[in-house]
Amino acid sequence: MLEILNNIDWEPFLVSIKLSFITCIILFLLCILLAYIFTFKKFKAKNFLETLITLPLVLPPSVMGFYLLVLFSKYSTIGKFLEKYFNISLVFTFEGLVLASCIYSLPFMFNPLYSAMLAVPKNIIEASYSLGKSPYVTLIKIILPNIKLAILSALIITFAHTMGEFGIVLMIGGSLSGETKVASIAIYESMENLDFFTAHIYSAILLFFTFIILFLTSFLKNLSNSHSTN
Fold this sequence. Notes:
By secondary structure, this protein is mostly helical. The chain has helices at 2-6, 11-40, 46-54, 61-72, 77-85, 94-119, 122-130, 135-146, 148-163, 167-173, 183-192, 196-229. It is found in: Cell membrane. One of its GO terms (cellular component) is plasma membrane.
């Protein structure tokens, strides 16, 4: 068993973890702001933007990956602009992978936070405002503590979802070892090379890792619920 583990190339898993971690941080900061705006502000484009945010839930990853590839390639207007003025390339780079993952995993972070904010009792928010607290202080001191379980769920689900991404990371990132080759791509390449043993090992590791993440989420939820009822 130890010999098998020693012979495993862990680099794709490290890239996957790094990608998932960065994606979670970016989306958490972005979606807290988005969820707050969607909950407490009224604007005309709300339904359109909500549909746009939710689109990755039903759109095939390969379709989104294809259009992002076209959009950010060096032959597109945006791609040429980024490369010319900022020396940034978003195709087959880790930075492009992060951007694609943020777009694809956006609803997994946004939806739980938005639903939780909608459920926060309005009277405690109004009480905070009546005491002279600013919207920022109310968000930090009142709203976020009341949705901590939703935050935990959103972070872990987004992390696990990003870990398992395949279609969009293949289209945007390709398979550059140590940079864009994530665990799911390593499994695909093992299958393509008819190396079923390695594919089994990689798949088992990813399955075990994802199961542990979801199990911890469930455990922490039940633990928190038991404390709140007591």
